[in-house]
Amino acid sequence: MHEWAARVARDWPAFTVETRGGWRLGLADGVTKRANSALVLDPGADVAEVTAYYTGHGVRPCAQVWPGEEAVDARLAEHGYEVVEPTLVLARGLDERPAAEGASLITARPTSAWSALFGRTGVDARTADTVTRILGQVGTAYGVAASGEGRGCAVLDGESVGICAMVTDPGARGKGVATGLLADLLRWAYDEGARSAYLCVVEGNEPALRLYGGAGFAPVSRYHNRVLG
Protein backbone atom coordinates (compact mmCIF):
# COMPACT_ATOMS: atom_id res chain seq x y z
CA MET A 1 0.00 0.00 0.00
CA HIS A 2 1.19 3.50 -0.79
CA GLU A 3 2.68 5.21 2.29
CA TRP A 4 0.31 8.16 2.19
CA ALA A 5 -2.69 5.93 1.47
CA ALA A 6 -1.99 4.04 4.68
CA ARG A 7 -1.67 7.25 6.69
CA VAL A 8 -4.87 8.80 5.34
CA ALA A 9 -6.80 5.57 5.92
CA ARG A 10 -5.53 5.43 9.51
CA ASP A 11 -6.61 8.99 10.27
CA TRP A 12 -10.02 8.75 8.55
CA PRO A 13 -10.84 5.12 9.39
CA ALA A 14 -13.54 2.88 8.02
CA PHE A 15 -15.83 1.07 10.46
CA THR A 16 -14.98 -2.32 8.97
CA VAL A 17 -12.03 -3.45 6.86
CA GLU A 18 -11.54 -6.62 4.84
CA THR A 19 -8.38 -7.70 3.03
CA ARG A 20 -8.84 -9.94 0.01
CA GLY A 21 -7.93 -10.27 -3.64
CA GLY A 22 -5.06 -7.81 -3.35
CA TRP A 23 -7.22 -5.05 -1.86
CA ARG A 24 -7.87 -3.42 1.47
CA LEU A 25 -11.64 -2.84 1.42
CA GLY A 26 -13.03 -0.21 3.80
CA LEU A 27 -16.67 0.40 4.63
CA ALA A 28 -18.34 3.15 6.71
CA ASP A 29 -22.04 3.18 5.91
CA GLY A 30 -21.33 4.63 2.47
CA VAL A 31 -20.47 8.08 3.90
CA THR A 32 -17.41 9.75 2.31
CA LYS A 33 -15.42 8.08 -0.45
CA ARG A 34 -12.29 8.14 1.70
CA ALA A 35 -13.79 5.72 4.26
CA ASN A 36 -15.62 3.63 1.66
CA SER A 37 -12.96 2.79 -0.87
CA ALA A 38 -10.55 0.07 -1.88
CA LEU A 39 -6.80 0.54 -1.46
CA VAL A 40 -4.30 -1.36 -3.57
CA LEU A 41 -2.21 -3.98 -1.75
CA ASP A 42 -1.12 -6.01 -4.80
CA PRO A 43 -0.38 -4.57 -8.29
CA GLY A 44 -2.20 -7.58 -9.73
CA ALA A 45 -5.38 -6.95 -7.72
CA ASP A 46 -8.59 -8.06 -9.43
CA VAL A 47 -11.06 -5.22 -10.03
CA ALA A 48 -13.97 -7.66 -9.82
CA GLU A 49 -13.30 -8.01 -6.07
CA VAL A 50 -13.99 -4.29 -5.56
CA THR A 51 -17.16 -4.38 -7.61
CA ALA A 52 -18.53 -7.44 -5.84
CA TYR A 53 -17.69 -6.19 -2.35
CA TYR A 54 -19.28 -2.75 -2.57
CA THR A 55 -22.31 -3.70 -4.64
CA GLY A 56 -22.92 -6.48 -2.13
CA HIS A 57 -23.08 -3.84 0.61
CA GLY A 58 -25.26 -1.45 -1.37
CA VAL A 59 -22.46 1.07 -1.83
CA ARG A 60 -21.19 2.48 -5.11
CA PRO A 61 -17.82 0.80 -5.82
CA CYS A 62 -14.84 3.12 -5.35
CA ALA A 63 -11.06 2.67 -5.37
CA GLN A 64 -8.27 5.10 -4.49
CA VAL A 65 -5.39 5.25 -6.96
CA TRP A 66 -2.02 6.59 -5.84
CA PRO A 67 1.29 7.18 -7.68
CA GLY A 68 2.87 3.92 -8.83
CA GLU A 69 -0.51 2.22 -9.25
CA GLU A 70 -0.96 3.04 -12.93
CA ALA A 71 -1.50 -0.57 -14.02
CA VAL A 72 -4.38 -0.95 -11.56
CA ASP A 73 -5.72 2.42 -12.67
CA ALA A 74 -5.86 1.21 -16.27
CA ARG A 75 -7.74 -1.95 -15.28
CA LEU A 76 -10.25 0.07 -13.27
CA ALA A 77 -10.85 2.26 -16.33
CA GLU A 78 -11.40 -0.84 -18.48
CA HIS A 79 -14.07 -1.98 -16.02
CA GLY A 80 -15.96 1.31 -16.30
CA TYR A 81 -14.55 3.09 -13.22
CA GLU A 82 -14.39 6.85 -13.77
CA VAL A 83 -11.99 9.39 -12.25
CA VAL A 84 -13.62 11.45 -9.47
CA GLU A 85 -12.12 14.21 -7.30
CA PRO A 86 -8.37 14.22 -8.00
CA THR A 87 -6.93 15.12 -4.60
CA LEU A 88 -3.65 16.61 -3.38
CA VAL A 89 -1.85 15.73 -0.16
CA LEU A 90 -0.27 18.86 1.29
CA ALA A 91 2.23 18.92 4.14
CA ARG A 92 4.40 21.26 6.17
CA GLY A 93 6.85 21.05 9.02
CA LEU A 94 6.17 22.24 12.56
CA ASP A 95 9.73 22.95 13.61
CA GLU A 96 8.65 26.06 15.52
CA ARG A 97 5.53 26.91 17.47
CA PRO A 98 3.12 28.43 14.93
CA ALA A 99 1.94 31.99 15.49
CA ALA A 100 -1.75 31.99 16.37
CA GLU A 101 -4.27 34.15 18.21
CA GLY A 102 -5.48 31.26 20.36
CA ALA A 103 -9.09 32.43 20.10
CA SER A 104 -10.54 29.12 18.88
CA LEU A 105 -12.10 26.62 21.25
CA ILE A 106 -10.33 23.26 20.94
CA THR A 107 -11.82 20.29 22.77
CA ALA A 108 -11.42 16.54 23.02
CA ARG A 109 -15.10 15.97 22.13
CA PRO A 110 -17.31 17.60 19.52
CA THR A 111 -19.27 20.49 20.99
CA SER A 112 -22.74 21.61 19.93
CA ALA A 113 -21.13 24.55 18.12
CA TRP A 114 -18.87 22.15 16.19
CA SER A 115 -21.82 19.95 15.20
CA ALA A 116 -24.03 22.91 14.25
CA LEU A 117 -21.84 23.65 11.22
CA PHE A 118 -23.11 20.49 9.51
CA GLY A 119 -26.64 21.82 9.18
CA ARG A 120 -25.48 25.33 8.31
CA THR A 121 -23.45 23.97 5.38
CA GLY A 122 -26.17 21.69 4.04
CA VAL A 123 -25.00 18.35 5.42
CA ASP A 124 -27.81 15.92 6.29
CA ALA A 125 -28.14 14.38 9.75
CA ARG A 126 -27.13 10.85 8.67
CA THR A 127 -23.90 12.06 7.08
CA ALA A 128 -23.13 14.29 10.05
CA ASP A 129 -23.59 11.41 12.46
CA THR A 130 -21.37 9.09 10.43
CA VAL A 131 -18.58 11.67 10.06
CA THR A 132 -18.66 12.22 13.83
CA ARG A 133 -18.42 8.45 14.39
CA ILE A 134 -15.49 8.18 11.96
CA LEU A 135 -13.56 10.90 13.81
CA GLY A 136 -14.48 9.38 17.16
CA GLN A 137 -12.36 6.32 16.36
CA VAL A 138 -9.06 8.24 16.39
CA GLY A 139 -7.30 10.83 18.56
CA THR A 140 -9.22 13.84 17.31
CA ALA A 141 -9.24 17.41 18.63
CA TYR A 142 -12.27 19.48 17.62
CA GLY A 143 -11.77 23.18 16.91
CA VAL A 144 -14.39 25.90 16.60
CA ALA A 145 -13.61 29.50 15.66
CA ALA A 146 -14.43 32.09 18.31
CA SER A 147 -17.24 33.42 16.12
CA GLY A 148 -18.75 29.93 15.77
CA GLU A 149 -18.60 30.38 11.99
CA GLY A 150 -15.92 27.78 11.28
CA ARG A 151 -14.73 24.45 12.53
CA GLY A 152 -12.05 21.85 11.86
CA CYS A 153 -10.24 18.88 13.36
CA ALA A 154 -6.72 17.80 14.17
CA VAL A 155 -5.98 14.06 14.25
CA LEU A 156 -2.80 13.49 16.23
CA ASP A 157 -0.62 10.45 15.44
CA GLY A 158 2.71 10.60 17.23
CA GLU A 159 4.70 13.54 15.87
CA SER A 160 2.37 14.06 12.93
CA VAL A 161 -1.05 15.70 12.76
CA GLY A 162 -3.70 15.46 10.08
CA ILE A 163 -5.97 18.46 9.58
CA CYS A 164 -9.47 17.58 8.37
CA ALA A 165 -13.18 18.47 8.38
CA MET A 166 -12.47 22.18 7.86
CA VAL A 167 -15.75 24.03 7.22
CA THR A 168 -16.72 27.70 7.19
CA ASP A 169 -20.29 29.02 7.31
CA PRO A 170 -21.12 30.21 3.75
CA GLY A 171 -21.94 33.68 5.04
CA ALA A 172 -18.54 34.05 6.69
CA ARG A 173 -16.25 32.92 3.90
CA GLY A 174 -13.44 35.24 2.90
CA LYS A 175 -13.29 36.86 6.32
CA GLY A 176 -10.27 35.00 7.71
CA VAL A 177 -12.26 32.59 9.87
CA ALA A 178 -10.53 29.48 8.50
CA THR A 179 -7.10 31.13 8.58
CA GLY A 180 -7.33 31.83 12.30
CA LEU A 181 -8.78 28.43 13.13
CA LEU A 182 -6.13 26.59 11.12
CA ALA A 183 -3.36 28.49 12.93
CA ASP A 184 -4.90 27.61 16.30
CA LEU A 185 -5.17 23.93 15.37
CA LEU A 186 -1.55 23.83 14.24
CA ARG A 187 -0.34 25.53 17.43
CA TRP A 188 -2.40 23.09 19.52
CA ALA A 189 -0.83 20.17 17.62
CA TYR A 190 2.67 21.57 18.15
CA ASP A 191 2.04 21.90 21.88
CA GLU A 192 0.90 18.26 21.88
CA GLY A 193 4.16 17.11 20.28
CA ALA A 194 3.45 17.21 16.53
CA ARG A 195 6.36 18.27 14.34
CA SER A 196 4.73 17.87 10.94
CA ALA A 197 1.23 18.38 9.55
CA TYR A 198 -0.65 17.26 6.47
CA LEU A 199 -4.10 17.47 4.91
CA CYS A 200 -5.97 16.40 1.79
CA VAL A 201 -7.71 18.84 -0.53
CA VAL A 202 -9.56 18.36 -3.81
CA GLU A 203 -7.31 19.58 -6.61
CA GLY A 204 -9.76 22.13 -8.00
CA ASN A 205 -10.65 23.77 -4.68
CA GLU A 206 -8.86 27.06 -5.28
CA PRO A 207 -10.01 28.86 -2.09
CA ALA A 208 -8.78 25.96 0.06
CA LEU A 209 -5.49 25.77 -1.84
CA ARG A 210 -4.92 29.48 -1.23
CA LEU A 211 -5.70 29.05 2.46
CA TYR A 212 -3.36 26.10 2.94
CA GLY A 213 -0.62 27.52 0.73
CA GLY A 214 -0.68 30.69 2.81
CA ALA A 215 -0.25 28.54 5.93
CA GLY A 216 2.90 26.93 4.55
CA PHE A 217 1.49 23.70 3.14
CA ALA A 218 2.93 22.34 -0.12
CA PRO A 219 2.05 19.28 -2.27
CA VAL A 220 3.80 16.03 -1.35
CA SER A 221 1.57 13.46 -3.07
CA ARG A 222 -1.76 12.99 -4.82
CA TYR A 223 -4.45 10.44 -5.53
CA HIS A 224 -7.73 10.16 -7.35
CA ASN A 225 -10.81 8.06 -6.84
CA ARG A 226 -12.08 5.65 -9.46
CA VAL A 227 -15.84 5.21 -9.06
CA LEU A 228 -17.91 2.72 -11.04
CA GLY A 229 -19.83 4.79 -13.59
UniProtKB/TrEMBL annotation:
Keywords: Transferase
Pfam family, one: Rv0428c_C
Family matches, as InterPro entries: Acyl_CoA_acyltransferase (IPR016181), GNAT_dom (IPR000182), NAT_camello-type (IPR050769), Rv0428c-like_C (IPR056935)
UniProt domain N-acetyltransferase: residue ranges: 94-229
Protein name per Swiss-Prot or TrEMBL: GNAT family N-acetyltransferase
Organism expressing this protein natively: Streptomonospora nanhaiensis
